[in-house]
Design goal:
251 residues, alpha+beta, 3-stranded antiparallel β-sheet
């Protein structure tokens, strides 16, 4: 006949078993429901915080680019990039590409048709004497990057500013084979009101066709900051503008 050992330690029941035995099925389901409600509340909040952070980083990028534009023009007799002739593998021309992409290319140590290749040295990018390529982080909006594969185009160059003589001009010239001389960039002193003159804005292919501009490969399909787009003006300030409004100076 087996007798229990009076000196043997009783087998311990795991604490979690006692914990579970203390709750009824109804109580467990109630806890699960509460967790679900909290998750439903927190997940959108986390999303809003992330979007706000991306928006702030984008505005900071544009401010840095504004400072770089000022530095560039100060070193180039007041001219904006694309005022002087540029030589690359395609042609000798004034003007730059339409989109302000983040990928730069330099030829023999000289900028080509990408805005960031002209402003890279003012944004901490060292350009050697040879031919090279790379990216300028300040030209990458984190909200746009989350919707792209690889390095896309986050920003677009303003298309219309009012000059001192009352005319409207493209501030940073557009490369064009047939009317090269008419498409060169302007000088900052020629811009009538820098505080209203758009230098760059968030690029997306929802908005560009409304400006009679072609879509840009690598640009997001729609506004990445919800109901607004960030805009850099030539006086260096950045503003969030309703996505249905064209912030550029018009007739």
């Amino acid at each position: 006949m087996h007798h229990p050992n009076p000196f043997a330690r009783p087998r311990r029941v795991p604490a979690n078993i006692h914990f579970l035995r203390g709750f009824t099925l109804t109580e467990l389901l109630t806890v699960i429901a509460i967790i679900g409600v909290l998750a439903a509340i927190l997940i959108p909040t986390v999303g809003k915080v992330r979007r706000a952070s991306q928006n702030s980083a984008c505005a900071s990028n544009l401010r840095q680019i504004g400072v770089a534009l000022t530095g560039y023009s100060a070193d180039n007799r007041g001219a904006l990039p694309g005022h002087d002739l540029i030589q690359d593998d395609w042609q000798l021309a004034y003007g730059l590409n339409r989109g302000a992409g983040a990928t730069y290319w330099v030829k023999s140590g000289k900028p080509t048709r990408d805005l960031c290749s002209h402003l890279g040295p003012y944004l901490g990018i060292s350009i050697d004497a040879g031919s090279s390529t790379g990216t300028v982080p300040s030209f990458i909006c984190p909200a746009a990057a989350s919707e792209q594969t690889g390095v896309g185009t986050s920003y677009y160059i303003g298309t219309s500013v009012r000059m001192n003589d009352g005319s409207l001009r493209r501030p940073i010239g557009l490369v064009n084979n047939s009317i090269v001389a008419q498409r060169r960039s302007v000088k900052r002193v020629e811009i009538a009101s820098p505080a209203r003159a758009v230098a760059l804005f968030d690029a997306d292919n929802e908005y560009l066709p409304t400006l009679s501009q072609s879509t840009v490969t690598g640009a997001p399909a729609s506004a990445v900051h919800g109901t607004t787009r960030n805009v850099l003006y030539f006086d260096g300030h950045v503003a969030a503008v309703n996505k249905d409004i064209n912030p550029q100076e018009q007739l």
